[in-house]
Amino acid sequence: MYRAKRRGGGVSVYTPDPSRGPSVVTLESALNRALEREEFILHYQPQFDVPSGRLRGMEALLRWQHPELGLVPPSDFIPLAEVTGLIVPIGRWVIGEAARQAVAWSRRSPGLTMAVNLSARQFEQPDLIGDLRNILQASGLPAAQLELELTETMLMQAVEATGTLERLKDLGVRLAVDDFGTGYSNLAYLKHFPIDTLKIDQSFIQSLAGAGPNDPRDEALISAVIQLGHALNLKVLAEGVEQPAQLAFLEAQQCDQVQGYLLGRPAPAGSISAWLAAEPS
Ligand code: C2E
Ligand code: CA
Ligand code: CA
Ligand code: CA
Asked: SS3 for 161?
């Protein structure tokens, strides 16, 4: 196994045999080893309530601390972890680790929400509810403090796998729609599913008050999503907030929560703990 620069810039893991191309098997065993050797780590990004500016919770974001490659971003290994099914044990580890961390931070920030990303493979897996129940029990995290982020595509597929969302809701966890606005244009699922939060995809926020001239249509779109969410009794969170003008617009539109580099970048647990300790409570 060696390091190779992809044309796009990121790194990927290959077998040394160039005639056969990248090997899924090699990366699969590397991911397996990573799990055994505890090379996965979580970074956490804070989410804030608007307009109070109070910390609302964190999103847990997975990284692979590779001994040679350094910190590997999720985009470089999650697609393969999904194909091979390894995302199921990796994702189970993510939820357990994030839950333990949430309990530790809750002493200082009572009620803090911990959001974790769920992949389709995890969502489809029959043990999901049992796994979650075990994790909540072992960590002592109240279910209401765990938020599962699902994509629109997963929710559309859940139309067939009905029952899973209801059972998650019975468990008491919160459900968020991630990357809202980038998936299906069919919104009927919003009416049927027990969702708590809409996360407006960062592409919408970034075209807002971006580098180029302001497009009033971007503003119209975001404000319509916020109103839609509120009409359905959902919280609306905007992700990817990078500029003060974006935050000001979201505040004016009564967006409920914000997350982005402007307010806090994803960081390892130790840095977040230090930041929390320095915050006035
Ligand atoms: P996502 O769930 O949409 O997460 C948001 C991504 O945007 C994160 O990238 C975050 O670091 C980045 N981000 C946050 N604020 C800003 C901002 O203000 N500007 C910009 N440009 N970017 C911002 P990251 O950590 O590289 O994660 C990428 C994706 O990988 C995530 O997108 C999620 O789909 C997936 N992912 C991350 N952790 C997990 C996990 O534990 N399980 C699963 N299944 N997927 C995960
Ligand atoms: Ca997410
Ligand atoms: Ca997202
Ligand atoms: Ca995304």
From this structure: coil
